[in-house]
Amino acid sequence: MEYPDTFKTIAFESEEVLLKEKGSKFFGYAFPIENEDAVKPIIEDLKKQHPHAVHFCYAYQIGTAPKIAYRTNDDGEPSNTAGAPIYGQIQSFGLTNVLVVVVRIFGGVKLGVGGLIAAYKTTAQMTLDICEITEKTIDVHFLVSFDYKNMNKVMRVIKEKKLEIISQEMEIDEDSGMPIGKIVTKTRKKNAEMVFDIFDLMFEIDVKII
Prior knowledge:
This is YigZ family protein. The chain is of the alpha+beta class.
């Protein structure tokens, strides 16, 4: 099965949005994230901003098919009334690498299951509506190693195939005492096999996917 090599995410952290429902306040936020470790510090920061809030409900998705990670959190609300409707909006917008948090300050009136689902869904939708959505490529990274004398050959391929250089360094080989070049470069997924084969067939050039 062929998977796409692009994905949609949000370009920047969103502005705060506010939904008021029967005295309760629902504050919505969206954040671009690259990994699950980013979630906890964001929630902790929001707790400092809203010391009187009771519920910090959220959902996130990271990665692209076939490797997708996601989580929903109701944070004390009835099961599936908060995290799931938030995640439903992430899916509806077709986004990944995104965290959406809805902070609720209770207003004294219970909303019921249907009311909660509607409030969290609407707040998440309002939040994502104001986000700038961007499309990014899924990239494959290569480590290309070569004798210094072959640097021009490597750079020619990088230039011709419009590869992005992530890092480059020179080091001295312990055995030969000769300088060895190492370049980390990347290309979008659909071109990865072609680029790998070009480097792999070159004499005295070593390439591996990292």
